[in-house]
Design brief:
By secondary structure, this protein is an alpha+beta fold. The chain is 54% helix and 16% strand.
Length: 428
């Protein structure tokens, strides 16, 4: 069964309304009982005084004119009649000649002396009073509910603003702040000195601390890469002076790997800085993919899906797309298993995509959940490794504004899919 989702605003408003209704109900009952006891008590007291007078007059055989007294009235309530027969006096609301009255009766020489007092107006007054109490309770509950809804709306809006900033920070926008944008004039975020403001301030503090740490790491990465570049170039030049042989080949191979790592670090530092801008133009997709795959020098098959047009023109930055495809192919060969296949899907009028797939153990759960992470590679046999290559591919895809997804194929193997936009002039 699907659970009904109720926002915090309505939860607070409903809670305040329920509490106010409960309080109004309790107070209404208390006031009703108090007023009823007082009003009925006054009527009973007046009728009791008349009964005392009627008993005195009856005892002396004097006329009871002017007093609403009756001997053994047949309309006397049965319970009151039984009480008087037991030798006690009492009172009870009943009727007399079809009208509501307050009966007060007592024994009188083996008979029942009863005095009645009109009760209709008293009953109407009590009913009117109850109606007034109910109306006042409804108005009060409505006013409290509206006030609660207003306060809850403000709290909910402030919490929603804080949650939106938290989502932006999670998505990578470390400049986002509840009180504005980092380094700029504060915006209209949650203000005040309550708990919501404390949460907002804590979130801003966390974002600022995280941003500072990342900036330090980015500067460190860039500085290390720049510092390594110059001595590494000198070492490569010096290695060329070594005599030919296996040692020289091993040294040059490791130095080339170190130079590649240095270039990757420099590229990551540029991507992290956010200064990279794509130089978009129109390119035919088929030749573009063939060229990117050939530059890797690896045994990779390029396929075209049925109905696809290899001359489809896409809008991209050729250098950056080459880098993405090459890194995906190299990663598939390094951490997957052959055959590695690059599939181009460019149906006429449909979505254009490029898929790189291998037959290895597939991407790890950590990569699928969190994405590629630099300097992290899974152990062999536990999934597809990932490191700077996939990190750079994701970064370049972000610069191009295209979608790069990682998943595992149902029949095995890791799969990376790039979706590309068609060139504007080729869309019509």
């Amino acid at each position: 069964m699907r659970r009904l989702s109720v926002s915090l605003r309505w939860k607070i408003a409903l809670t305040v309304t329920a509490v106010s209704c409960a309080v109004a109900a309790v107070l209404g009952v208390l006031v009703h009982n108090a007023v009823t006891r007082q009003t009925v008590g006054e009527v009973r007291k007046d009728a009791g005084n008349d009964l005392d007078t009627a008993l005195v007059l009856f005892e002396y055989g004097t006329s009871r004119e002017g007093i609403n007294s009756v001997l053994d009235p047949p309309e006397l309530p049965a319970q009151l009649r039984t009480l008087v027969h037991s030798g006690k006096r009492g009172s009870m609301v009943g009727s007399y000649h079809g009208r509501p009255v307050m009966w007060v009766a007592a024994p009188a020489g083996g008979q029942i002396m009863a005095v009645w007092s009109p009760y209709g107006s008293t009953r109407r007054n009590l009913e009117d009073f109850d109606t007034a109490i109910l109306g006042s309770a409804v108005l009060a509950a409505t006013a409290v509910a509206l006030a609660g809804l207003f306060v809850a709306h403000r709290i909910s809006r402030r919490l929603a603003s804080t949650a939106a900033v938290a989502r932006r920070i999670t998505a990578g926008d470390l400049d986002a702040r509840v009180g504005g944008t980092a380094g700029h004039k504060p915006g209209r975020g949650p203000t005040g000195h309550d708990e919501v403001a404390a949460v907002a301030a804590a979130l801003d503090s966390v974002a600022g601390s995280l941003q500072s740490r990342l900036e330090v790491e980015q500067r460190f990465t860039a500085d290390v890469a720049h510092e390594l570049r110059t001595p590494l170039t000198g070492i490569l030049a010096s290695a060329e002076l070594l005599p030919e042989g296996r040692p020289k080949e091993m040294i040059n191979d490791r130095l080339r790997a170190l130079r590649g790592l240095t270039e990757d670090l420099l590229e990551i530092s540029r991507l992290d800085s956010g200064a990279e801008r794509a130089d978009l133009a129109g390119y035919q997709l088929g030749p573009l993919v063939d060229r990117a795959v050939r530059t890797t020098g690896l045994d990779t098959e390029v396929r075209l899906t049925e109905g696809s047009d290899p001359d489809t023109v896409v809008e991209t930055d050729r250098r950056r797309l080459d880098r993405i495809i090459a890194n995906l192919v190299i990663n598939a060969h390094r951490h997957g298993a052959p055959p590695v296949v690059v599939t181009v899907d460019a149906p006429r009028g449909g979505t254009v995509s490029v898929e790189v797939r291998d037959r290895g153990p597939g991407f790890s759960d950590a990569l699928l959940e969190h994405g590629p992470q630099r300097f992290r590679t899974d152990a062999p046999g536990r999934g597809k490794g990932h490191g700077l290559g996939l990190t750079i591919a994701v970064g370049q895809a972000a610069v191009l504004g295209i979608d790069l997804r990682f998943d595992n194929a149902p029949d095995g193997g890791a799969r990376a899919t790039i979706q590309l936009p068609r060139y504007p002039e080729a869309r019509h």
